[in-house]
Specification:
The complex is a heterodimer of chains A (274) and B (155). By secondary structure, chain A is mainly alpha-helical. Chain A has eleven helices and no strands. In chain A, helix 4 crosses helix 8, helix 5 packs parallel to helix 8 and helix 10 runs antiparallel to helix 11. By secondary structure, chain B is α/β, with parallel strands linked by helices. Chain B has an eight-stranded mixed beta sheet, with no helix packed on it. The chains are: A mainly alpha (274), B alpha/beta (155). The interface between A and B is medium-sized, with 28 and 22 residues.
Amino acid sequence: MGLLIKTMQKRSIKLNGLIGLLQKTGHNSLQILASVGRGAMFIMSLLPALPYSFWRFDLLVKQIYVAGVLSLPIILTAGLFVGMVMSLQGYNVLVDYNSEEAVGSMTALSLLRELGPVISALLFAGRAGSALTAEIGLMRSTEQISALEMMAIDPLKHIYAPRFSAGLITLPLLTLLFIALGIIGGYMVAVGWLGVDEGAFWSQMNSHVDWREDVVNGIIKSVAFAILISMIALFQGFNAIPTSEGVSNATTKTVVHSSLGVLGLDFVLTAVMF
Amino acid sequence: MQRQLKIEIWVGAFVLMSIAALLMIALQVSNFSSWKEKPSYQVSALFDNVGGLKVRAPVKMSGVVVGRVTSIGVDPQSFKARVTMKIDRTYNELSIDSSASILTAGLLGDQYIGIEIGGDEEYLAEGSEFELTQSALVLEDLIGQMLVKFSDSGE
Protein backbone atom coordinates (compact mmCIF):
# COMPACT_ATOMS: atom_id res chain seq x y z
CA MET A 1 0.00 0.00 0.00
CA GLY A 2 2.87 2.36 0.86
CA LEU A 3 4.38 1.90 -2.58
CA LEU A 4 1.06 2.76 -4.23
CA ILE A 5 0.78 6.00 -2.24
CA LYS A 6 4.36 6.93 -3.15
CA THR A 7 3.87 6.41 -6.86
CA MET A 8 0.66 8.41 -6.84
CA GLN A 9 2.11 11.29 -4.88
CA LYS A 10 5.24 11.55 -6.97
CA ARG A 11 5.25 14.66 -9.10
CA SER A 12 4.39 13.55 -12.59
CA ILE A 13 5.84 14.89 -15.82
CA LYS A 14 3.54 17.52 -17.38
CA LEU A 15 2.84 17.61 -21.11
CA ASN A 16 1.34 20.54 -23.05
CA GLY A 17 -1.48 20.86 -25.58
CA LEU A 18 -4.19 18.34 -26.36
CA ILE A 19 -2.08 15.43 -25.24
CA GLY A 20 -1.46 17.34 -22.01
CA LEU A 21 -5.21 17.65 -21.42
CA LEU A 22 -5.57 13.94 -22.06
CA GLN A 23 -2.74 13.18 -19.72
CA LYS A 24 -4.15 15.44 -17.00
CA THR A 25 -7.57 13.77 -17.19
CA GLY A 26 -5.96 10.37 -17.06
CA HIS A 27 -3.75 11.35 -14.14
CA ASN A 28 -6.71 12.73 -12.16
CA SER A 29 -8.91 9.72 -12.84
CA LEU A 30 -6.16 7.38 -11.77
CA GLN A 31 -5.69 9.38 -8.60
CA ILE A 32 -9.40 9.27 -7.81
CA LEU A 33 -9.47 5.52 -8.42
CA ALA A 34 -6.39 5.06 -6.28
CA SER A 35 -7.94 6.96 -3.39
CA VAL A 36 -11.15 4.93 -3.68
CA GLY A 37 -9.02 1.81 -3.57
CA ARG A 38 -7.03 3.04 -0.59
CA GLY A 39 -10.31 3.93 1.14
CA ALA A 40 -11.69 0.46 0.55
CA MET A 41 -8.50 -1.19 1.79
CA PHE A 42 -8.52 1.06 4.85
CA ILE A 43 -12.12 0.16 5.68
CA MET A 44 -11.46 -3.53 5.12
CA SER A 45 -8.53 -3.46 7.51
CA LEU A 46 -10.53 -1.40 10.01
CA LEU A 47 -13.51 -3.78 10.18
CA PRO A 48 -11.78 -6.66 12.00
CA ALA A 49 -10.38 -4.18 14.54
CA LEU A 50 -13.82 -2.80 15.43
CA PRO A 51 -14.80 -5.30 18.16
CA TYR A 52 -11.59 -4.32 19.93
CA SER A 53 -13.04 -0.87 20.67
CA PHE A 54 -15.51 -2.48 23.07
CA TRP A 55 -12.75 -4.31 24.83
CA ARG A 56 -10.77 -1.12 25.52
CA PHE A 57 -13.91 0.56 26.82
CA ASP A 58 -12.10 3.57 28.34
CA LEU A 59 -10.82 4.65 24.90
CA LEU A 60 -14.33 4.37 23.49
CA VAL A 61 -15.82 6.40 26.35
CA LYS A 62 -13.22 9.12 25.80
CA GLN A 63 -14.10 9.30 22.11
CA ILE A 64 -17.84 9.39 22.83
CA TYR A 65 -17.09 12.31 25.12
CA VAL A 66 -15.10 14.13 22.43
CA ALA A 67 -17.55 13.48 19.60
CA GLY A 68 -20.82 13.42 21.52
CA VAL A 69 -20.78 15.44 24.71
CA LEU A 70 -18.76 18.27 23.18
CA SER A 71 -21.20 18.42 20.21
CA LEU A 72 -24.19 18.69 22.54
CA PRO A 73 -24.42 22.51 22.73
CA ILE A 74 -24.58 23.01 18.97
CA ILE A 75 -26.97 20.06 18.40
CA LEU A 76 -29.35 21.07 21.17
CA THR A 77 -29.46 24.74 20.15
CA ALA A 78 -29.93 23.88 16.49
CA GLY A 79 -32.67 21.37 17.30
CA LEU A 80 -34.57 23.82 19.44
CA PHE A 81 -34.47 26.58 16.86
CA VAL A 82 -35.25 24.35 13.88
CA GLY A 83 -38.32 23.05 15.71
CA MET A 84 -39.40 26.56 16.62
CA VAL A 85 -39.03 27.84 13.05
CA MET A 86 -40.84 24.81 11.59
CA SER A 87 -43.71 25.39 13.96
CA LEU A 88 -43.90 29.11 13.22
CA GLN A 89 -43.80 28.67 9.44
CA GLY A 90 -46.21 25.74 9.49
CA TYR A 91 -48.67 27.71 11.59
CA ASN A 92 -48.68 30.59 9.12
CA VAL A 93 -49.72 28.26 6.29
CA LEU A 94 -52.09 26.01 8.22
CA VAL A 95 -54.00 28.82 9.90
CA ASP A 96 -55.46 29.74 6.49
CA TYR A 97 -57.12 26.32 6.33
CA ASN A 98 -58.29 26.41 9.94
CA SER A 99 -56.19 23.37 10.75
CA GLU A 100 -53.47 24.87 12.88
CA GLU A 101 -53.60 21.81 15.18
CA ALA A 102 -51.83 19.88 12.43
CA VAL A 103 -48.71 21.95 13.10
CA GLY A 104 -47.64 19.39 15.72
CA SER A 105 -47.74 16.41 13.40
CA MET A 106 -46.12 18.45 10.63
CA THR A 107 -43.20 19.48 12.84
CA ALA A 108 -42.77 15.98 14.26
CA LEU A 109 -42.93 14.23 10.89
CA SER A 110 -40.49 16.53 9.14
CA LEU A 111 -38.07 16.37 12.08
CA LEU A 112 -38.25 12.58 12.37
CA ARG A 113 -38.03 11.81 8.68
CA GLU A 114 -35.67 14.40 7.24
CA LEU A 115 -34.52 17.36 9.27
CA GLY A 116 -33.41 15.51 12.39
CA PRO A 117 -31.12 12.95 10.76
CA VAL A 118 -29.83 15.28 8.02
CA ILE A 119 -29.13 18.45 10.01
CA SER A 120 -27.58 16.53 12.90
CA ALA A 121 -25.38 14.68 10.40
CA LEU A 122 -24.28 17.93 8.73
CA LEU A 123 -23.52 19.54 12.10
CA PHE A 124 -21.75 16.38 13.25
CA ALA A 125 -19.60 16.37 10.10
CA GLY A 126 -18.62 19.98 10.73
CA ARG A 127 -18.14 19.71 14.47
CA ALA A 128 -16.79 16.20 15.09
CA GLY A 129 -15.78 14.89 11.66
CA SER A 130 -13.41 17.75 10.90
CA ALA A 131 -11.84 17.50 14.36
CA LEU A 132 -11.32 13.78 13.83
CA THR A 133 -9.54 14.32 10.51
CA ALA A 134 -7.36 17.10 11.91
CA GLU A 135 -6.44 15.02 14.96
CA ILE A 136 -5.42 11.95 12.97
CA GLY A 137 -3.70 14.02 10.31
CA LEU A 138 -1.64 15.80 12.97
CA MET A 139 -0.88 12.50 14.69
CA ARG A 140 0.54 11.31 11.40
CA SER A 141 2.47 14.48 10.69
CA THR A 142 4.06 14.37 14.15
CA GLU A 143 4.70 10.65 13.59
CA GLN A 144 2.79 9.59 16.68
CA ILE A 145 1.21 6.76 14.74
CA SER A 146 4.57 5.47 13.54
CA ALA A 147 5.77 5.64 17.13
CA LEU A 148 2.83 3.50 18.25
CA GLU A 149 3.55 1.02 15.49
CA MET A 150 7.17 0.86 16.62
CA MET A 151 6.03 -0.06 20.13
CA ALA A 152 3.99 -2.88 18.53
CA ILE A 153 0.72 -1.13 19.38
CA ASP A 154 -1.73 -1.48 16.52
CA PRO A 155 -3.03 2.01 15.65
CA LEU A 156 -6.04 0.42 13.95
CA LYS A 157 -7.15 -0.96 17.29
CA HIS A 158 -6.12 1.96 19.48
CA ILE A 159 -6.67 5.01 17.32
CA TYR A 160 -9.07 4.25 14.46
CA ALA A 161 -11.45 1.62 15.87
CA PRO A 162 -12.56 3.53 19.01
CA ARG A 163 -13.14 6.68 16.97
CA PHE A 164 -15.21 4.84 14.38
CA SER A 165 -17.35 3.07 16.98
CA ALA A 166 -17.79 6.31 18.91
CA GLY A 167 -19.10 8.06 15.78
CA LEU A 168 -21.42 5.16 15.09
CA ILE A 169 -22.88 5.32 18.61
CA THR A 170 -22.89 9.08 19.01
CA LEU A 171 -24.64 10.40 15.91
CA PRO A 172 -27.91 8.43 16.38
CA LEU A 173 -28.04 9.56 20.01
CA LEU A 174 -27.43 13.17 19.00
CA THR A 175 -30.14 12.84 16.35
CA LEU A 176 -32.64 11.62 18.94
CA LEU A 177 -31.81 14.59 21.16
CA PHE A 178 -32.09 16.96 18.19
CA ILE A 179 -35.56 15.63 17.33
CA ALA A 180 -36.78 15.70 20.93
CA LEU A 181 -35.57 19.27 21.43
CA GLY A 182 -37.08 20.25 18.07
CA ILE A 183 -40.48 18.92 19.08
CA ILE A 184 -40.23 20.69 22.43
CA GLY A 185 -39.32 23.91 20.58
CA GLY A 186 -42.25 23.45 18.22
CA TYR A 187 -44.53 22.84 21.20
CA MET A 188 -43.31 25.99 22.94
CA VAL A 189 -43.98 28.17 19.91
CA ALA A 190 -47.28 26.58 18.85
CA VAL A 191 -48.91 26.11 22.23
CA GLY A 192 -47.15 28.72 24.34
CA TRP A 193 -46.99 31.57 21.90
CA LEU A 194 -49.46 31.05 19.03
CA GLY A 195 -52.23 29.56 21.18
CA VAL A 196 -52.76 26.20 19.45
CA ASP A 197 -54.79 23.84 21.63
CA GLU A 198 -52.45 21.62 23.64
CA GLY A 199 -54.53 18.43 23.53
CA ALA A 200 -55.10 18.68 19.77
CA PHE A 201 -51.38 19.35 19.22
CA TRP A 202 -50.30 16.10 20.89
CA SER A 203 -53.19 13.92 19.74
CA GLN A 204 -52.75 14.92 16.08
CA MET A 205 -49.06 14.15 16.39
CA ASN A 206 -49.84 10.84 18.03
CA SER A 207 -52.22 9.71 15.33
CA HIS A 208 -49.99 10.69 12.41
CA VAL A 209 -46.54 9.59 13.55
CA ASP A 210 -45.95 5.89 13.11
CA TRP A 211 -43.35 4.15 15.26
CA ARG A 212 -41.99 1.78 12.62
CA GLU A 213 -42.50 3.94 9.55
CA ASP A 214 -41.25 7.27 10.86
CA VAL A 215 -39.21 6.86 14.04
CA VAL A 216 -37.32 3.66 13.21
CA ASN A 217 -36.65 4.76 9.63
CA GLY A 218 -35.24 8.05 10.92
CA ILE A 219 -32.90 6.18 13.26
CA ILE A 220 -31.80 3.85 10.43
CA LYS A 221 -31.01 6.93 8.36
CA SER A 222 -28.90 8.45 11.08
CA VAL A 223 -26.94 5.19 11.58
CA ALA A 224 -26.19 5.17 7.85
CA PHE A 225 -25.01 8.79 8.04
CA ALA A 226 -22.86 7.96 11.07
CA ILE A 227 -21.09 5.17 9.17
CA LEU A 228 -20.55 7.44 6.17
CA ILE A 229 -19.18 10.41 8.13
CA SER A 230 -16.92 8.35 10.39
CA MET A 231 -15.52 6.50 7.39
CA ILE A 232 -14.81 9.68 5.44
CA ALA A 233 -13.32 11.52 8.43
CA LEU A 234 -11.03 8.67 9.45
CA PHE A 235 -9.93 7.95 5.90
CA GLN A 236 -9.17 11.60 5.16
CA GLY A 237 -7.05 11.79 8.30
CA PHE A 238 -5.30 8.56 7.39
CA ASN A 239 -4.79 9.68 3.80
CA ALA A 240 -3.69 13.27 4.55
CA ILE A 241 -0.32 14.43 3.33
CA PRO A 242 1.48 14.91 6.65
CA THR A 243 2.15 18.64 6.34
CA SER A 244 0.17 21.53 7.79
CA GLU A 245 -1.24 22.27 4.34
CA GLY A 246 -2.12 18.63 3.73
CA VAL A 247 -3.94 18.36 7.05
CA SER A 248 -5.93 21.52 6.40
CA ASN A 249 -6.87 20.23 2.93
CA ALA A 250 -7.95 16.91 4.37
CA THR A 251 -10.13 18.66 6.97
CA THR A 252 -11.87 20.67 4.28
CA LYS A 253 -12.36 17.53 2.21
CA THR A 254 -13.93 15.73 5.16
CA VAL A 255 -16.56 18.43 5.63
CA VAL A 256 -17.31 18.79 1.91
CA HIS A 257 -17.37 15.09 1.08
CA SER A 258 -19.39 14.05 4.08
CA SER A 259 -21.93 16.87 3.64
CA LEU A 260 -22.47 15.99 -0.01
CA GLY A 261 -22.48 12.30 0.84
CA VAL A 262 -25.12 12.80 3.53
CA LEU A 263 -27.39 14.77 1.20
CA GLY A 264 -27.02 12.23 -1.61
CA LEU A 265 -27.47 9.22 0.64
CA ASP A 266 -30.49 10.89 2.21
CA PHE A 267 -32.19 11.09 -1.17
CA VAL A 268 -31.49 7.44 -1.88
CA LEU A 269 -32.68 6.30 1.55
CA THR A 270 -35.83 8.43 1.33
CA ALA A 271 -36.63 6.99 -2.10
CA VAL A 272 -36.21 3.46 -0.75
CA MET A 273 -37.99 3.97 2.59
CA PHE A 274 -40.99 6.19 2.08
CA MET B 1 -7.94 9.55 37.04
CA GLN B 2 -10.03 12.53 38.04
CA ARG B 3 -10.32 13.51 34.39
CA GLN B 4 -11.39 10.03 33.28
CA LEU B 5 -14.07 10.10 35.99
CA LYS B 6 -15.41 13.44 34.76
CA ILE B 7 -15.52 12.14 31.18
CA GLU B 8 -17.36 9.02 32.27
CA ILE B 9 -19.95 11.02 34.19
CA TRP B 10 -20.58 13.28 31.21
CA VAL B 11 -20.90 10.35 28.81
CA GLY B 12 -23.30 8.66 31.21
CA ALA B 13 -25.42 11.82 31.34
CA PHE B 14 -25.33 12.05 27.53
CA VAL B 15 -26.48 8.47 27.05
CA LEU B 16 -29.25 8.81 29.65
CA MET B 17 -30.46 12.03 28.03
CA SER B 18 -30.62 10.31 24.65
CA ILE B 19 -32.58 7.41 26.10
CA ALA B 20 -34.98 9.91 27.66
CA ALA B 21 -35.35 11.54 24.24
CA LEU B 22 -36.09 8.17 22.64
CA LEU B 23 -38.69 7.41 25.31
CA MET B 24 -40.31 10.79 24.76
CA ILE B 25 -40.43 10.23 21.00
CA ALA B 26 -41.80 6.71 21.45
CA LEU B 27 -44.47 7.48 24.02
CA GLN B 28 -45.47 11.08 23.49
CA VAL B 29 -44.94 11.57 19.77
CA SER B 30 -45.48 8.28 17.96
CA ASN B 31 -48.20 5.68 18.24
CA PHE B 32 -45.84 3.24 19.93
CA SER B 33 -48.31 2.54 22.74
CA SER B 34 -50.99 1.41 20.28
CA TRP B 35 -48.43 -0.45 18.19
CA LYS B 36 -48.29 -3.52 20.37
CA GLU B 37 -50.68 -6.24 19.34
CA LYS B 38 -53.85 -6.33 21.37
CA PRO B 39 -55.87 -9.55 21.33
CA SER B 40 -58.19 -9.21 18.38
CA TYR B 41 -60.25 -11.17 15.86
CA GLN B 42 -60.45 -10.78 12.12
CA VAL B 43 -63.63 -10.11 10.15
CA SER B 44 -64.12 -9.10 6.54
CA ALA B 45 -66.62 -7.25 4.38
CA LEU B 46 -67.29 -6.93 0.65
CA PHE B 47 -67.73 -3.43 -0.75
CA ASP B 48 -68.67 -2.32 -4.27
CA ASN B 49 -66.19 0.53 -3.97
CA VAL B 50 -63.75 1.33 -1.19
CA GLY B 51 -63.02 4.88 -2.39
CA GLY B 52 -59.93 6.19 -0.65
CA LEU B 53 -59.88 3.70 2.24
CA LYS B 54 -56.37 2.76 3.27
CA VAL B 55 -54.77 -0.08 5.20
CA ARG B 56 -54.50 0.86 8.92
CA ALA B 57 -57.60 3.06 8.65
CA PRO B 58 -59.62 2.99 11.88
CA VAL B 59 -62.77 0.92 12.36
CA LYS B 60 -65.20 2.89 14.50
CA MET B 61 -68.36 2.15 16.37
CA SER B 62 -70.34 5.15 17.62
CA GLY B 63 -67.23 7.20 16.91
CA VAL B 64 -64.93 5.08 19.09
CA VAL B 65 -62.01 3.27 17.46
CA VAL B 66 -62.52 -0.48 17.95
CA GLY B 67 -60.12 -1.84 15.34
CA ARG B 68 -58.04 -1.29 12.23
CA VAL B 69 -58.19 -2.27 8.57
CA THR B 70 -55.51 -4.90 7.90
CA SER B 71 -55.81 -5.51 4.17
CA ILE B 72 -57.74 -4.43 1.09
CA GLY B 73 -57.96 -6.54 -2.05
CA VAL B 74 -60.28 -7.67 -4.81
CA ASP B 75 -62.34 -10.80 -4.15
CA PRO B 76 -61.65 -13.17 -7.09
CA GLN B 77 -65.24 -14.52 -7.22
CA SER B 78 -67.46 -11.48 -6.89
CA PHE B 79 -64.93 -8.91 -8.17
CA LYS B 80 -65.84 -6.71 -5.24
CA ALA B 81 -63.34 -5.19 -2.86
CA ARG B 82 -62.69 -7.37 0.18
CA VAL B 83 -61.65 -5.42 3.26
CA THR B 84 -60.36 -7.39 6.23
CA MET B 85 -60.13 -5.74 9.61
CA LYS B 86 -59.02 -6.60 13.10
CA ILE B 87 -61.40 -5.81 15.92
CA ASP B 88 -60.42 -5.75 19.60
CA ARG B 89 -61.38 -8.82 21.61
CA THR B 90 -63.06 -6.55 24.14
CA TYR B 91 -65.77 -5.84 21.57
CA ASN B 92 -66.71 -9.46 20.90
CA GLU B 93 -70.46 -9.05 21.17
CA LEU B 94 -71.21 -7.42 17.84
CA SER B 95 -74.30 -9.09 16.42
CA ILE B 96 -73.93 -10.86 13.09
CA ASP B 97 -76.35 -8.57 11.21
CA SER B 98 -74.35 -5.41 11.99
CA SER B 99 -73.59 -3.27 8.96
CA ALA B 100 -70.25 -1.78 7.86
CA SER B 101 -70.08 1.42 5.85
CA ILE B 102 -67.19 3.48 4.57
CA LEU B 103 -67.48 7.00 5.93
CA THR B 104 -65.40 10.15 5.69
CA ALA B 105 -64.17 12.14 8.67
CA GLY B 106 -65.17 15.72 7.96
CA LEU B 107 -65.41 17.10 4.45
CA LEU B 108 -61.89 16.28 3.30
CA GLY B 109 -60.76 13.92 6.05
CA ASP B 110 -59.52 10.35 5.92
CA GLN B 111 -61.95 7.53 5.30
CA TYR B 112 -62.81 4.98 7.97
CA ILE B 113 -65.19 2.09 8.49
CA GLY B 114 -68.23 2.74 10.64
CA ILE B 115 -70.02 -0.22 12.20
CA GLU B 116 -73.69 -0.05 13.06
CA ILE B 117 -74.98 -2.63 15.47
CA GLY B 118 -77.82 -4.93 14.48
CA GLY B 119 -80.17 -6.89 16.69
CA ASP B 120 -79.30 -10.54 16.13
CA GLU B 121 -78.43 -12.82 19.05
CA GLU B 122 -75.52 -14.37 17.16
CA TYR B 123 -72.21 -12.56 17.30
CA LEU B 124 -69.43 -11.90 14.79
CA ALA B 125 -66.45 -14.18 15.35
CA GLU B 126 -63.05 -14.88 13.79
CA GLY B 127 -63.44 -15.07 10.01
CA SER B 128 -67.07 -13.98 9.76
CA GLU B 129 -68.29 -11.50 7.19
CA PHE B 130 -70.49 -8.42 7.29
CA GLU B 131 -73.70 -9.06 5.30
CA LEU B 132 -74.77 -5.46 5.04
CA THR B 133 -72.24 -3.02 3.62
CA GLN B 134 -72.39 0.45 2.22
CA SER B 135 -69.70 1.64 -0.18
CA ALA B 136 -67.80 4.86 -0.08
CA LEU B 137 -69.43 7.87 -1.64
CA VAL B 138 -67.56 8.73 -4.81
CA LEU B 139 -67.86 12.36 -5.78
CA GLU B 140 -68.01 11.65 -9.53
CA ASP B 141 -70.93 9.23 -9.08
CA LEU B 142 -72.81 11.78 -6.98
CA ILE B 143 -72.33 14.49 -9.59
CA GLY B 144 -73.38 12.04 -12.32
CA GLN B 145 -76.59 11.17 -10.47
CA MET B 146 -77.31 14.83 -9.89
CA LEU B 147 -76.84 15.62 -13.59
CA VAL B 148 -79.21 12.77 -14.54
CA LYS B 149 -81.82 14.13 -12.10
CA PHE B 150 -81.47 17.64 -13.48
CA SER B 151 -81.83 16.50 -17.07
CA ASP B 152 -84.88 14.39 -16.14
CA SER B 153 -86.66 17.27 -14.42
CA GLY B 154 -85.82 19.58 -17.32
CA GLU B 155 -87.88 17.55 -19.77
